[in-house]
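Re: the 397-residue chain
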Amino acid sequence: MTLRRIQRDQIRLGMYVHAFEGSWFKHPFWRRGFLLEREKDVETVLASEIETLLIDISKGRNLSPLPVTGAQEAAALEAEAQHDERMAAATEVVNRSRETMRGLLNEARLGKGVRSDAVVSVVEDVTASIEQNRHALLKVLRLKTKDEYTYLHSVAVCALMVNLARQIGLDDETTAEMGTAGLLHDIGKVKLPDALLNKPGRLTPDEFALVKTHSMQGFQMLQEIDGIPAAALDVCQHHHEKIDGTGYPHGLQAEQISLAARMGAICDVYDAVTSSRPYKEAWPPVDAITRMRQWIGHFDAELLFSFMLSIGVFPVGTIVQLSNDRLGVIIEGGRHAAKPKVLAFYSTRRRKFTRTELVIAGDGRSSDAILGEVDPKAWDISQERIDRLVQLATPWV
């Protein structure tokens, strides 16, 4: 079964009607699930009060695409050219940042100090690229190879920190500090053997204890450099702390962990698990976010949802508040350069279930923008109903 929603005036002979939407009393047919074989039936539908219906294109005719005009073809070519241009610009930023980080880390391994001008240059490049087209930069960064991880992980965390900072409304100066913190958060790993960092198997207790020293070693390195923001020192030292106090190096809990370090924890883990390494394959973004949400006590839950908003990736089945006074359930989680699909089903203003509608979640200016996550229990929405809604929407994904 492959369902497609169409408007009443799009109906054609040869289509297989799966269901009419809206009130049953407006339907011109008593049955559901039939092939439109008579012109008279088409005319009956066109004359009815039906607004939309579902057709099964695996059993009947699909909606014929409209002929492409010269203007439409030109617009499509222009859009493709703009996309290619944005991707090329993002790739240039990533390549330039990778080489800068390669030089910085190699110098740090030799005991030389971190050059502040180089750090500022990368953060400014990344921030400008995020402002121009965040999806392009984040997509290019996700394409890094296993061999590039050492240099591009820090660039990716820098970009994710800047992106998250913008999402939660931090000012320009603080955003730049967060980007710097992301870029330098793992600087202490230059003190560890590459063989240990890239070991394909499970670390022994002694090896893991050695790896955990990188946060304090990095903190000590950055303390010796003039002009490093306090946020960078904090994130370097505390990006492995957890909300429940089981992290390291100090076992901080909840509000004892700064906003910068809580942001760093999310951005660091997300890029790590969505990257390919010599000892593991990358997780898809939706899988990564789904699993991260299940690690109760690891991350700041509210901040993690803001992170999801910033990258446009959501776990399937999440109930969200839309900006048009409706609740919806995520049926396709989205990925870089794509927007999540939401099945709207409830009016918060009228406090009642409504006819379902498939929408593509937009940005903050859209009438279908996602504002936040909702506890379904607060609206008497059972898990059974959520599961049914997801199942209902599956053919549209």
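The CA atoms of residues 272 and 287 lie 13 Å apart.
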